[in-house]
Write a structure and sequence with these properties.
four-stranded mixed sheet
Length: 504
């Protein structure tokens, strides 16, 4: 289990006008109005539901359900009751929320503010609740398990794999791991029986079955159990995801996928010649260590429980994008992740470290930064959208390299390329389209960039679907979509009551 202690919220108390607006709007998805005499258990129930919902929310004591503020007579008592309710939650919420008394004319109300992204999963006497609309509803077992995984309370990679047995693990993959482990001078484990080896690595469930991490690292066919655990690669001309020149959907074990994705990037990026004395050698447009770390980190940080998303590696003329499903765990930010050892998939990270694919936990981002700086290239751009972790490696200023041509003789036919025990499908259409200027694409935020990819795959999206996909409000969605419309990257179609957006 991981615990992510976060400081209590700071800043000024809620403004009276804002609190008055909350009361006038009535109870809803982010607001609960409680009378002064509300029981502590009812207050605690609302706090649990708000914290599990994940968004910012407010519990107003002294606000009536009809939208009129009645105020409280015993302010100190109401404050004490809210703090008591917060301490009665498991785990306690008193170090996360803030409680303020706010004067509204002649009346005073007491407001408990629940900041967004609470770090735990909360219950009240074993009752796990979540706020939906204006109701506090119980979480289903599946919802609870997903929330535990998303917030890093329980590791999905340690879960059992329904239907998987020891027979689904490939001895050749385990032998490869042991050989690579010996080469990196890790402590030898060759003399251990297979079941003891897997148990020592933490890859067995209590009843002796393989865990998710075991199947992904050593499985003979991991995608049989985890079809979403693939890396989708594509090479696009220009600077945005239009028609691709080459693509590959890479499966296999985690090490195989990382090797194949790295090979895809290297095959589709320039290799400038370097002359040393009388010897001509080929270099790399991007430092190999930065590319490998970025791809490996996408695996280590991805949320394995997300079933409808894959890791994406997109190669453009002047940059490479790596998009991994699942935002950062609570307590992690883009600013502090370079110095953190909190990982979503610690078992997989350990295995990748043992075979030399990544450095010790907490140093990968810094290695990428140092490698790019040493090559005279811009610092890696890292963004967390809440739904994915997005990394960009860019070439910076200079002449645009020519697009990589299709592999000779393949045309638009899919081809299987051998890669050890794995394989990948490659499709190479010969046509390409003219793409927007780099400056236009560089000005897009992560949501806008991801929408271009989504539209390639699903064809169209409505504004409401955009709001739900990226968890943004109507104003933000309209601003994002208008930016893409103004840039000529998408077009608006349909009637006002049934309008949608498609790629231009």
């Amino acid at each position: 289990m991981h615990h992510h202690p976060l400081p209590a919220p700071h800043g000024p108390p809620p403004a009276p006008a804002a609190v008055a607006a909350l009361i006038a709007g009535g109870a809803g998805a982010a607001v609960e109005l409680a009378p002064e005499g509300a029981f502590s258990a009812d207050l605690a129930e609302a706090l649990v539901a708000f914290a599990n919902a994940g968004g910012a929310a407010w519990l107003v004591v002294g606000g009536d359900a009809d939208g009129a503020g009645s105020g409280v007579g015993d302010v100190a008592g109401a404050v004490a009751r809210l703090w008591s309710a917060a301490r009665g939650v498991s785990p306690p919420l008193h170090d996360w929320i803030r409680v303020d008394s706010v004067e509204l004319g002649a009346q005073t109300v007491v407001v408990a503010t629940v900041p967004a992204n609470a770090p735990g999963v909360y219950h009240l006497g074993g009752r796990y609740l979540v706020r939906r609309g204006g109701q506090n509803l119980p979480l289903t077992p599946r919802e609870l398990l997903r929330m535990l995984h998303e917030r890093g309370i329980a590791a999905y990679e340690d879960s059992p794999v329904p239907g998987a047995t020891a027979a689904d693990l490939d001895p050749a993959q385990i032998d490869w791991y042991l050989q690579q482990r010996a080469r990196t001078r890790q402590s030898p484990l060759d003399d251990l029986p297979r079941d003891e080896l897997l148990d020592k690595l933490g890859l067995l469930t209590p009843d002796g079955g393989p865990t998710v991490a075991a199947v992904l690292a050593f499985g003979g066919d991991p995608q049989r159990f985890f079809p979403q655990m693939v890396i989708r690669c594509a090479r696009f001309p220009g600077d945005w995801p239009g028609d691709f020149l080459d693509q590959a959907e890479i499966g296999g074990t985690v090490p195989q996928m990382i090797l194949a994705a790295y090979a895809f990037v290297r095959r589709h990026t320039p290799h400038p010649a370097q002359i040393q004395g009388l010897t001509r050698t080929e270099g790399d447009a991007y430092p190999p260590v930065a590319v490998r770390e970025a791809i490996a980190n996408a695996v280590v940080h991805r949320d394995l429980s997300i079933m409808d998303a894959v890791i994406r590696v997109f190669v453009f003329d002047r940059h490479v994008e790596i998009d991994s499903p699942g935002g950062l765990l609570p307590g992690l930010t883009v600013a502090n992740m370079a110095h953190s050892t909190v990982l979503r998939n610690r078992r997989l990270a350990d295995l990748l470290y043992h075979v030399g694919f990544i450095e010790r936990q907490g140093t990968g981002i810094r290695r990428m930064q140092r490698a790019m700086a040493a090559a005279g290239l811009p610092e890696p751009r890292i963004e967390d959208s809440g739904q994915s972790l997005f990394v960009v490696l860019a070439l910076g200023e200079g002449p645009t390299p020519p697009p990589t041509p299709p592999l000779k003789g393949e045309g638009s036919q899919a081809t299987s390329l051998s890669l050890g025990e794995g394989s990948l499908a490659v499709d190479n259409p010969q046509s390409a389209i003219r793409t927007p200027q780099s400056a236009v694409v560089e000005g897009l935020n992560i949501r806008q960039r991801r929408l271009l990819t989504v539209l390639r795959e699903r064809g169209a999206i409505t504004r409401v679907e955009y709001e739900n996909l990226f968890h943004v409000g109507t104003r933000t969605a309209k601003r994002d979509l208008k930016g893409l419309l103004d840039a000529g990257l998408i077009v608006h179609r349909g009637l006002s009551t049934a309008s949608y957006y498609v790629l231009a």
